[in-house]
Amino acid sequence: MKSYKDLSKEELKSEIEILEKRYNEFKAQNLKLDMTRGKPCAEQLDLSMDMLDIPAVELRKAADGTDCFNYGVLDGIPEAKALFAQMLEVSTDEIMVGGNSSLNLMYDTIARAMSLGILGSTPWSKLNSVKFLCPSPGYDRHFAICELFGIEMITIDMKQDGPDMDTVEKLVSEDDSIKGIWCVPKYSNPDGITYTDEVVDRFSNLKPKAKDFRIFWDNAYCVHHLTENPDKLKNILKACKDAGNDNMVYIFSSTSKVSFPGAGVAVMATSTENIKGIKKSLTIQTIGHDKINQLRHAKYFKNLDGINSHMKKHADILKPKFNTVLEIFEGELGGKDIASWNKPNGGYFVSLNTMDNCAKEVAKLASEAGVALTKAGATFPYGNDPRDRNLRIAPTMPPIEELKKAIEVLVICVQLVSANKLLNQ
Ligand code: PMP
Fold first, then answer.
1. Pocket of ligand 1, candidates 36, 37, 103, 143: which has the most ligand atoms within 8 Å of its Cβ, to mutate?
2. Which of 159, 164, 276, 298 has the greatest number of beta carbons closer than 10 A?
3. Which SUPFAM superfamilies does the entry mention (predicted)?
4. Is residue 56 part of a domain?
């Protein structure tokens, strides 16, 4: 297909006419399709159904004799720690098992730093200025935590190998009000990018001016592969230790999209010194998390092989959905120079970049045809995409026929908005 940029005004006009006709045909169908959030579909949730059939008597005693029905155990039963230590490639004493949500762990970690500081540092809330670096496009709920606590967000460009490390290195070494950075290092939300070894090395060798600077390494998609040849992510905790920066990273993950969102198990991995610091206040916050669910997960998955073979079943369901999106993108947008997108090897999203200053208009047009997309701009701090071009596509939830329709509407909208823009230039 010819690039839109090479079309004459007349050619653009006739293209718009065809697109408008197609758009109106979809509009007449009164569609109501929701593509807003990256939730698993019902079929994926069914995969873990058997876990709930484990008899209660088998969920009572942990390996060390702990009665899981009773109070106690702040940081997780041994079986759960062992499972997550394998998944995150750390040792069991670097693991803290939490409740059902890793986002909750991240929120608590920031809230704790705000009110109590980190390992004896001044509580962030007592400082005049606290800033976070936000590689973007990124995860809107990370940004929402910063916004809630009044932490100033600095947008960092995402490149194909990870965040723009030249800028990250420079800023953290110069400004001691920069206290953290949000990272989704594997199959990133939304770009689907896995940070290269070089990027991980540069992270572990950061020389932050603030001694309480922390990398928030949200490894939400560590086992969520879509191909037989999964991306590999270098171990950040080990790299930090090798660089003498043992305390610089907090790793987060959960089984939300392995077993059940809202009823999975969340986990944090960090240095033993950080864990000791966290436990001082955690022990006031709770007597312990849900050990029955921890044991249920440990018994069901057994080990990392168990998790990996379960994740293959997820991939079997998700792959055709991702392929549907990519095929329609390629077929309708390929070669037209009006959009670009990533082909992720895992994770939950396809990230679509339109021409500059088109994303909001595309989302509006799609919504008028009954297709709800994640709000344009949501993938940037303060909801402000400076180029107004990024759209996060979440293909997992809708049944494939609905997904196909929604993406067809979307690509028509992208073409319509682009053609009109070029016509009026
Ligand atoms: N981190 C990222 C990058 C996510 O995409 C999501 C879910 N969309 C979460 C965290 C939420 O994780 P949890 O369910 O463990 O709170």
1. 103
2. 298
3. PLP-dependent transferases
4. no
CATH of the domain at 401: 3.90.1150.10
Tell me, what's the ipTM? Answer: 0.99
Domain finish residue from 257, 281, 302: 302
Do 323 and 256 share a domain, yes or no?
no
Residue 1 has pLDDT above 80, yes or no: no
Contacts of 143 (CB under 8 A, 6+ apart): 134, 153, 182, 380, 381, 382
Which protein residue has the closest C-alpha to ligand 1 atom 4?
Answer: 220
DSSP SS3 for 23: helix
Residue 136's beta-bridge partner residues? 157
**Chain segment 349-365, per-residue pLDDT in tens:** 999 999 999 999 999 99
38 CA closest ligand 1 atom index: 8
pLDDT in tens, 175-225: 999 999 999 999 999 999 999 999 999 999 999 999 999 999 999 999 999
Written as one string, the DSSP assignment of 361-376 is: HHHHHHHHTTEEESPT
CA-nearest residue for atom 11, ligand 1, is: 103
Cα(103) to centroid(ligand 1), Å: 6
CATH of the domain at 166: 3.40.640.10
Indicate which atom in ligand 1 lies nearest the CA of residue 257. 14
Q: Give the count of beta carbons closer than 10 Å to the beta carbon of residue 156.
A: 23
**DSSP assignment string, 211-224:** TT-EEEEE-TTTT-
Give the model confidence (pLDDT) of 388-425 as tens digits: 999 999 999 999 999 999 999 999 999 999 999 999 98
Is the pTM higher than 0.95? The answer reads: yes
Query: What is the reported pLDDT for 176?
Result: 98
Which secondary structure element, helix H or strand E, spans residue 42, and what is its range? Answer: helix 42-46
